[in-house]
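quick one before i forget lol
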Amino acid sequence: MDSTIEIAGIDNEAVTRWMTSRVPSLVPPIGFELITGGLSNLTYRLTDTAGSRWVLRRPPLGHVLATAHDMGREHRIISALQSTKVPVPPLVGFCEDSETNGAPFYVMHNVDGIVARDVAAAQTMTIDARRRAGSELIDVLASIHEVDIDGVGLGDLGRRESYVERQLSRWHRQWEATKDGDNPTMEALHQRLANQVPTQGTATIVHGDYRLDNCILNPDGSIAAVLDWELCTLGDPLADVGLMLVYWSEPKDAVSIGLPQASTVEGFASRQQLLDLYAERTGRDLSSIGYYVALGYWKLACILQGVLVRYRAGAMGTAATNEDPFGSQVIALAEAGMEALDGRIGSR
């Protein structure tokens, strides 16, 4: 990796100075590689001459923060979880000063392992490792929901009550701002969700985007680290369970809905098995889990609608075509949400 190549979002010299002051063993120069980009926070891999690696997170390009709240918040959450059973990457530090790299950022140590984003990645694991991954996914989620939020200093991370109501309000505003035609199913789904909000139990940490491909797996299927804490807050833990099931596909599912397929590979648990494991591990009542799965589908459809609008406007680097790659998925997600509300979680 050529450390002299300038990469968008990184000031090579300034970040190298910052890193050198915090990692005495670092051997400059550092090479920088963009891992994930887009409208979310940007993630880069840093590699020094000795082969040591780290990961840097910063806001999207052009995103001006009045404060370091976003990056500082992520860093704060991961830092607070270091002493818990939740596997998170070790941290190097947080830079609040935007003068260093154009925006606040934080750096953590690189964690090696498997990210099962697709079938090919899942197939690099043994069947036994896939079996273990399902139980580990639940065990770690339960550990997240067991964290003493006051004890680790996260008691003021967000409001504890009315999590579902807040989610419905937030994402409905986005839907209203981006919808570009009638979608009776989405409207009906939102109305049913608003009318049937379950009573929230004791608030816990809510990861906000907990799924298989936001975890780094060891070869044996155990979880080395949980990633992507930018949506983390306090609230209803069952929302994490519902969204996890949305992203957990089974072999019989229709692929047209556009969700990840890694969990369809032989050895991975079924959705029902995951639910049974969570109920056994936590003792929580899952009788209303269909609601939380429906909420997850609806939220994902709202997000995808925003992507669809940007695609049609040509804002994603390609010209829109007559073949709509997202619109049919928005409809399919809404229909899956209605089925989940009717108790048919595995029928998509």
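fyi Confidence is low (pLDDT under 50) at residues 315-320.
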